[in-house]
Amino acid sequence: MSCDCRLCRMQDYAEGIRHVRETVFVAEQKVPLELEWDGRDADAVHAVALDEDGAVVATGRLLLPAQNGDTAHIGRMAVLAPWRGRGTGSRILQLLCEHAQRQGASRVCLNAQLDAVPFYRRHGFVAEGAVFDDAGIPHRRMCRVLTARG
Fold it and tell me: Could you identify which of 9, 78, 83, 96 might form a hypothetical disulfide with 24, taking C-beta atoms 3.0 to 4.6 angstroms apart as the criterion?
């Protein structure tokens, strides 16, 4: 199974993004629906992975730094179960980090679920601060410096 990963706006793939996030976060992880939809999707750049039929199988979003900020934020990384362990999440994460760098961010941070910390560590993220609870799930803030291109 291969997939096509691309950047998009929420409205480009809204139905598919909703399906993936509600399957992973709401159904599997029991995150309350009202916490999943925080009103920030319209302001974000999204990445999606599409299967050979064009269905969304993974997603993530990037909130770019405020006007004078330098830190972007990645969130809502979700991969449907059949696509886990195949590099799909890595491709989504790479796309979002590259876009943040192109937009001038010097670093990118995210709130990783504890069981995902090793995944993000493999991609150059470093844990910061204490473990905290988000929607009943333990998380750790992680950040990665984005190297300047020559």
Answer: 78
**8 Å CB contact between 142 and 112:** yes
In angstroms, the Cα distances linking 121 to 17, 64, 113 are 25, 21, 12
Tell me how far apart the alpha carbons of residues 57 and 82 are, in angstroms, rounded to a whole number.
9
pTM: 0.92
- DSSP tag of 124: T
- pLDDT tens digit string along 29-81? 999 888 899 889 999 999 999 999 999 999 999 998 875 578 999 999 999 99
Give residue-wise pLDDT tens across range 88-146.
999 999 999 999 999 989 999 999 999 999 999 999 999 999 999 998 899 999 999 99
For the chain, first and last CA: distance in Å? 35
DSSP state of 120: H
**Ordered structural domains, the chain, with CATH:** 4-145 (3.40.630.30)
Give the number of other CB atoms < 10 A from CB of residue 117: 17
- Residue written as token pair 């029991």: 30
Give the separation between CA 99 and CA 60, rounded to whole angstroms: 12
Q: Are β-strands 56-63 and 71-79 bridged in parallel, bridged antiparallel, or unpaired?
A: antiparallel
